[in-house]
Amino acid sequence: MMHEFRRAKRRKASDTILVTDAMTERVIGRIGNLSETGMLLIASEALADDALYQLRFALPDGTAAQPVDVGAHLLWRDRASAPDQVWAGFRFIAVSETQARRLRAWIEAPGSHYE
């Protein structure tokens, strides 16, 4: 039997959710999974070790006109199997309460798949 030790439930992103660096307005990758406290990013751009980022993405919940903006800390990164891609783990350090509620609702939505 496998036990989950993460503090927050992580929803697998079944749709492509692009992530933009809000400072450069460049798409830096897509979400692999998402929790209230962080995300796995499949990055297609170079990322700086132990850096802070301001990230933006739209949840596929019908409210794409209202993107989610988060401050995030890059905790780790590792080479992915695809060329020019990197797995990157981010911890959210700044999320407004309104956007945290949207994240919770999306993560807990019926039909979600978890990792």
Throw out a few tags for this protein.
115 residues, mainly beta, Thrombin, subunit H, 1 helix, 42% strand, disordered N terminus
Protein architecture, described:
The chain has 115 residues and is mainly beta. It has one domain: Beta Barrel (Thrombin, subunit H). It contains one helix and seven strands. The protein has one helix spanning 97-108; strands at 11-12, 18-21, 26-34, 38-43, 52-57, 68-79, 86-94. It has a six-stranded antiparallel β-barrel with strand order 2-3-4-7-6-5. β6 and β7 form a beta hairpin. The longest helix is centred in the C-terminal third of the chain and has 12 residues, at 97-108. The chain is globular and about 35 Å long. The two termini are 15 Å apart. Residues 1-6 have low confidence and may be disordered. InterPro entries: PilZ_domain (IPR009875).
Brief account:
It contains 1 helix and 7 strands.
Task: Describe the SSE topology.
Elements: E1 11-12, E2 18-21, E3 26-34, E4 38-43, E5 52-57, E6 68-79, E7 86-94, H1 97-108
Antiparallel strand pairs: 1-3, 2-3, 2-5, 3-4, 4-7, 5-6, 6-7
Secondary-structure element series? EEEEEEEH
CATH superfamily: predicted glycosyltransferase like domains
The fraction of residues assigned to DSSP E strands is 35-45%
Backbone CA Rg: 14 Å
Q: How many domains would you count in the coordinates?
A: 1
